[in-house]
Amino acid sequence: MFIVGITGGIGSGKSAVTGQLEQFGINVIDADIVAREVVAPKEEALQKIAQHFGSQILTDSGELNRAALRAKIFSDPEERRWLEQLLHPVIRARIIQQLGNTRSNYAVLASPLLLETDQHQLTDHIVVVDVPEAIQIERTVARDKNNVKQVKSIIQTQMPRDQKIAKADTIIDNSADLATLETKVSALHSKLLTLAKQAHNHD
Predict the structure, then answer these.
(1) In the chain, what percentage of residues exceed pLDDT 90?
(2) What whole-number distance in Å separates Cα of residue 162 and Cα of residue 88?
């Protein structure tokens, strides 16, 4: 299976790209969704988190209290590392399992941390959706009602734009409007179909 990794900073329009590829019938595995699934009630990872941080990390209905967890790991790098060491392998294993179940001509792994974690090792081709930082800030503030300072601090935690671009096989510039993006994604889809076919023929 030819696997395409798609990433981009916050507000870059990664979801708009993957949404359009889904309309072309491509299976998209979203690492963010997987990350939520692995800490759902009854999941082993959630039990381990509750054992480690105490039951106040759970809501009354037994779900993960994300705000409480964020508060704990935000101020403590050691706790954050503990959590990442627990969750990254679980998320990775679940992603591999879901990619194995895909049936489209190629599969997409969409992940904001594709390049920051070892998730990029699962992919054959990396697409970076790129916009200038000013546009990232403007779009995220408009979408999430965050303030500029919050958005900037999120951008700071993500891999710098030039490093992402250096690791990309394909760059989608999404600084124009949605219609322009749709044209670019159509072209991307054609290109990926060709690459997937070539890879398949080599096998």
Answers:
(1) 83
(2) 25
SS3 of residue 156 by DSSP: helix
> E strand or H helix at 17, and its extent?
helix 14-23
SS3 49: helix
Identity at 112, one-letter amino acid code: P
The letter for the amino acid at 186 is S
Tens-digit pLDDT profile for residues 170-202: 999 999 999 999 999 999 999 999 999 999 898
Q: What is the pTM of this model?
A: 0.90
CA distances from 10 to 54, 129, 132, 151, 152 (A): 31, 10, 11, 8, 10
Q: Do 122 and 3 form a contact (C-beta atoms < 8 A)?
A: yes
* Nearest alpha-carbon partner for 173 in 2, 17, 10, 30: 17
* Inter-CA distances, 67 with 9, 14, 78, 87, 199, Å: 22, 25, 18, 17, 43
- How far, in Å, CA of 166 to CA of 83, rounded? 29
Q: What mean pLDDT do residues 22-32 have?
A: 97
Say how far apart CA 148 and CA 132 lie, in whole Å: 15
Which residues, at least 6 apart from 162, have a Cβ–Cβ distance to it below 8 Å?
none
Q: Name the β-bridge partners of 64.
A: 58
∠ Cα 182 101 3 (to 5°):
45
